[in-house]
Amino acid sequence: MPANREMTMRQMRQVLRLHASGTSDRAIGRIVGAARSTVRDAIQRAKAAGLIWPLPEDLSDTALEEKLFARAGARIGTRRRPEPDWAHLVQELKRPGVSIAILHEEYLADHPDGYGYSRFCDLFRSFERRLTPTMRQHHVAGDKVFVDYSGKKLPIVDPLTGEIRHAEIFVAVLGASNLTYAEATWTQTLPDWIEAHVRMFRFHGGVTKLVVPDNLKSGVHKASFYDPEINRSYGKMAAHYEVGILPARPRRPKDKAKVESGVRFAQFYILGRLRHRTFFSLQEANAAIAEAVTRMNSVPMRRLGVSRRQVFETIEKPALAPLPAQDYVFAHWQFARVGLDYHIEVEGFFYSVPFGLIGQQVEVRVTQRTIEAFHKGGRVAAHARRFAGRAHGTQAEHMPSSHRRYAAWSPERFRSWAAVIGPHTEGLIAAILSARRHPEQGFRTCIGVLQHMRGIPKERVEAVAAKALAIRALTYKSIVSLLDTYHERAPAPAADTPVITHPNVRGPGYFH
């Protein structure tokens, strides 16, 4: 049908009626408001189509237009030349290094009388436009995976309290094959976000060149068209897998059309099918989601006639980079200042670093099992993470040589020495250690007190210890003052009175 039409079908009917009544072409033109040549053309088209007035009552305007303005030659919707399997070509174009020019050359090799390059491209793009919006984007195999969280949440019931907690749905869609991965996480926070990526890579069995997230706060600190700022932990995960992070550009919906389409499809396919089920744990929900994802990836895609899994196995999987030997272990980073005791504090526990870093700022990598300290990019300390027990974790190699002897001291050792003297002395030493925030801070006081007790009769030491406990005199200076005062005022002991000669605690010079 011609692109421009000067008369409507209502006018056409009027032309045919007036012509049948004997009205001249010029008069008909004045009546319907058209040129005489246009009227004459309409009458000739009616004769060529075998139409006479009155027209059949059931002849619609659409049918009349087709009869009057149908093209001669090939039937509408048919091609005059042989055509390739366009769905197959769409898949082939996703292979690395394949272009439309190469596909056209192969087409002409099979069909020498086929379409020229320009017409071939037009027909190929026309076929792509009939696919889903996701499929219309051209993505090379192994190039990108699109990740995001679904806006819909999955309710999970606490079996003990009946409380309903809503889990987030993480969705990832591979660019070339549309293979979809989904799982439920409790939150969208950084640990859940990164660990979902780790499981996604494991599901794919390989790594794409790029990960394209939406500008989620867990992954992108600052959204920017030119230079988006990636979260450090997210960047470390990317470095572990040697994958690039390319956030979708702000206010560019086409950048994330793939994952948004995948998210909608996942919501329809997963949440729609699970809406009547009640889940009592995250593990149970993820098992059901895995079944739905497997089924979704196995269903043939409309028009292409093959499933996501088939396209992935044949085209995309061979293009993925291999996984590293070990999964990435999530860690969060923080800064810490090294204290005078060459320890850093992490969540209430203290971990040693080399004493030369006293007063310096270090970066701390915290995982579920380890604490690592870095200075100027190099790792300077590594500890097993503490959740209970002693607050200090000290490694001997971090101590200066004059302090390494402290490693042999412990609260139990001091109490055992004091127990040799008597119960009051043991109680005093225990009180000194417990009065400090950290027992190690009381070691010097205990050494000085025990050293000062040497040569004094046991009964006098026990009496002083009892008095010190009673008045809570727990500093070295106050205890020594009590010992000296009591020793000076007390009568001289008999020659055979036992005095303290044990333990053999060395003086302060031992430590310097």
From TrEMBL:
GO terms for MF: nucleic acid binding
GO-annotated biological processes: DNA integration
Metal-binding among keywords: no
Residue stretches making up the HTH IS408-type domain: 12-93
Keywords: Plasmid
Membrane spanning stretches: none
Pfam families on file: Mu-transpos_C_2 (PF22483)
Domain Integrase catalytic: 129-316
GTP-binding as UniProt keyword: no
NCBIfam families given in the database record: transpos_IS21
Family according to the record: Belongs to the transposase IS21/IS408/IS1162 family.
Name listed for the protein in its UniProt record: Integrase
Organism: Microvirga ossetica
